[in-house]
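Design request, tokens follow.
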């Protein structure tokens, strides 16, 4: 497998030669309880995730306190209908004083922990915590100053591309790389909650990889594991899914988040998909070799005496495969048998008289 773009985040290698990197996105699913946040870390570790991702912002760093016009969520189809943006972010944000204890608990559980910063102060804060990587959320892909700030840290960057045009992705990639980022991963993302499989457009994954010469993955807002498995088959090396203890507990992102058993299934199924990709191979592989005996070959199907002529009545192509390959059937018809042979004798060259 191609290892030329292999990236190391917190000691875990990401690239085509490695298992998919599974990120459990906590977002606001802690429901403003640090104890619950710790439980989410435990559940993610128990069920096979590689990393926990946080979001580092406050309502004031994202928007202003206003309930009018575009600052109010008036779309009745939205999960967050009836709230202002400020109210939503107040409910969903992770208190900054929680970051350190959450990260320390992640280390104890063998999980990598990093975050999405949403302004310069968040980057400065996360640098003090020495995070191993950064995530740029889809809406922030057009915030070039923020992207440059993150790029200057020199840390690996995972960037979601939801809603972005090809030119916007190019601008963001050039900005982060010119600022100092040497290791970049682009995630295909459909920015709707939940997202539908038919709008996932996973064919974009190999195109992203080819155009931008980076590793790729998916930030997946669909329900279930099918889209993530398909993404792995198309080269996705990172899978990010929102994660909660139980959707029925509520919370700003709970409706489209995975539960622990679903995370376990995701880890198992994406591993199987990755293993199934394998390599270009023809011929029997591994355990398949013992199935060769089940092929057809040429057998004597009636008792024959030396000198008798081979005919369709006394030789046939049957299972198993210890006789000559069936491709020699017409060549052998009309020739004579070199010695006596009983029904069920595998036909070999030494049973055929030489003329």
């Amino acid at each position: 497998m191609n290892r030329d773009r292999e990236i190391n985040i917190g000691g875990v290698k990401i690239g085509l030669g490695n298992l998919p990197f599974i990120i459990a996105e906590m977002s606001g699913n802690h429901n403003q309880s640090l104890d619950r946040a710790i439980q989410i870390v435990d559940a993610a570790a128990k069920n096979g995730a590689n990393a926990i991702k946080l979001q580092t912002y406050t309502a004031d760093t994202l928007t202003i306190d206003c309930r009018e016009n575009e600052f109010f969520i008036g779309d009745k189809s939205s999960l967050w209908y009836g709230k202002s943006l400020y109210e939503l972010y107040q409910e969903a944000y992770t208190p900054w004083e929680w970051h350190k204890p959450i990260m320390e608990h992640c280390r104890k559980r063998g999980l990598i922990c990093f975050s999405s910063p949403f302004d310069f102060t968040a980057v400065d804060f996360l640098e003090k915590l020495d995070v191993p990587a950064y995530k740029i959320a889809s809406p922030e892909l057009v915030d070039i100053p923020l992207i440059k700030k993150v790029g200057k840290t020199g840390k690996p960057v995972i960037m979601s591309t939801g809603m972005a045009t090809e030119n916007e992705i190019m601008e963001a990639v050039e900005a982060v790389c010119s600022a100092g980022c040497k290791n970049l991963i682009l995630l295909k993302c459909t920015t709707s909650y939940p997202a539908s499989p038919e709008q996932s457009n996973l064919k974009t994954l190999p195109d992203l990889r080819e155009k931008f010469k980076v590793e790729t993955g998916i930030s997946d807002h669909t329900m279930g594991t099918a889209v993530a498995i398909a993404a792995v088959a198309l080269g996705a090396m990172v899978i990010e899914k929102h994660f909660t203890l139980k959707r029925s507990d509520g919370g700003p992102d709970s409706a489209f988040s995975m539960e622990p058993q679903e995370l376990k299934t995701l880890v198992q199924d994406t591993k199987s998909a990755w293993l199934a990709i394998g390599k270009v191979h023809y011929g029997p592989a591994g355990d398949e070799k013992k199935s060769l005996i089940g092929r057809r070959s040429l057998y004597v199907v009636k008792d024959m005496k030396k000198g008798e002529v081979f005919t369709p009545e006394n030789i046939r192509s049957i299972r198993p495969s210890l006789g000559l390959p069936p491709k020699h059937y017409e060549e052998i018809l009309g020739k004579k048998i070199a010695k006596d042979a009983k029904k069920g004798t595998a036909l070999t060259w030494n049973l055929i008289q030489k003329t």
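Comment from the thread starter after seeing the answer: thanks! The chain has eleven helices and 13 strands.
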